[in-house]
Amino acid sequence: METKIRKNNENIKIGICLSLLGGFLDSYSYILKGNVFANAQTGNVVLIFIALANREFNKSVKYLIPVVTFAVGIFISELLKTKKNLRSHIRLKIILILEAVLIACIAFFGKNYSNHAVNCVISLIAAVQVANFDRIDNSPIATTMITGNLKSGMIQLSQYIHTKNRDCLYSFIKYIIVICNFGIGVIIGCVSIRLYSEYSILMCELFLVLTYITIEEDKTGLP
């Protein structure tokens, strides 16, 4: 029982750290990179078809690229999951290192490239993160967007009211924690951008380091 409690506690810590990062990245792409939200692709899909409707085919290709980048990130992540000789904690640490390298590249070289190119990299980061860190205590979770979390949280609250099952209440609280920390990540991003502009994204390295440490401490509990 003690091991289970410890593992659950560290799972929520991972959710907190990565939702902070998710909120930060959205504020970064919106404030500094052309008023877009690079973490989720619904807006890009809408813009693709608006461009097609207006016969602006060059624009449609422009909006298609981050969608493809996101899809590639998901695809690569799923391929890694099929590698039976790659233990879970090793795979997760590889993903964190990849995110850290890409974030450093954005900080130091992002100004040399278009906003669109940087947003594509952010889309890739969001994709590998959402594909690999997709559960907290066996509940589906997203640390780079909140729509699904809000839906799942309300479902759990409704079930708790109906059944009085305390597990549903605990799940609801976890979803609210992740949603609130996403918002806190946005605030941290706004403040950091005012102070450090392009280099503010390096703050995300702290969230990744904390996640890495948590996984390292709990690697015996992962398959």
Automatic annotation (TrEMBL):
Annotated Pfam families: DUF1275
Keywords attached to this entry: Membrane, Transmembrane, Transmembrane helix
Keyword presence, S-adenosyl-L-methionine: no
Transmembrane segments: 63-80, 92-110, 172-193
Domain of life: Bacteria
Record flagged with keyword Hydrolase: no
The name this protein goes by in its record: DUF1275 domain-containing protein
